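Possible race condition, two jobs.
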Amino acid sequence: MKDKGMPKADFIMGLILMACSLLIVVESLNIPRFEKDWGGFYAAPGFVPLILGITLFVMSLALFVRAVKKQGYKIIPGRETFSNFVRSRRVHRWCLAMIYAFGFFFLLGHIYFYLAAFLVLFAYMATFGEQKRSISLIISIVASAMIYLVFTKIFLVPLP
């Protein structure tokens, strides 16, 4: 049986990965090189990210070319397919998860890290978990306490 793959998904991911890899290459070239102090370009801090960015670009280009050969560029969905996608439960759950994630980053500047972690953990677990809310509450409290203990007492990392 011949594997048909997912040419449309490969096409999109190829484009996304190529853009990300180019961003990595550009940013790695912008990292100070300290060539006089560190012994040349190969010892510079941006050398490994540059190699990784180039490697990722080559692999994503191969993925993109393979997707184009399998006509993955035919990705424009019909109106009905698009409306079903937008109305799907998975999309609504993903959007809610993104709201929680961005809410966490917003909360970080306004309340203690531990409280923000507790609130976001509880929101995720209460929304997406299958256990009772009381269990979610207990797990969120314990996880927030563990974050506090591990980072501030063991690793001595001050959290905001």
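Job #2 (started ~2 s after job #1):
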Amino acid sequence: MPPGSAFAEVRKEIDRINQAAGSVEDFMWETVKVLHDRMLKYNWVGFYMLEEKTLDSQPRMLALGPFQGAMTPHTRIPLNQGICGAAASTGKTIVVDDVSLDSRYLACSTETKSEIVVPVFVRGKVVGELDIDSHFPAAFGDEDRTLVEYCASLVGKQMEKFAG
């Protein structure tokens, strides 16, 4: 990231917030706010966190956490559904340039054209994810992926730190 670029400036801001965070939840709220407000193509930014084990007959669920953007009907997503479920199940970042061409996409907004979902890990296990939607097709390039993966990794480290 070249110094002075939007990516470098946002990363500096995220680092500052990380140092000052009083709790994981505070850090998550501040992170989604900065990403949503400062990255022009990030129209919806939010965390989904893996719920504790549910009844054996039900799939594990991702529950909506801190977010910025329009309200979503998807406040809980089964691990076996959607791009969010796929990222959490595989533990891999998923970038979709055109959501209309991906059968896994759970439509939240007709304006969404592309999406990136990055897992959050604590001690090597997926505990949630950072999900970003854009109203622009192919909005997420390599710099975006690097930035979003960095933010997700900091949340995992915060969770480890505050969990003891």
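The first helix runs from residue 6 to 20.
Logs attached separately.
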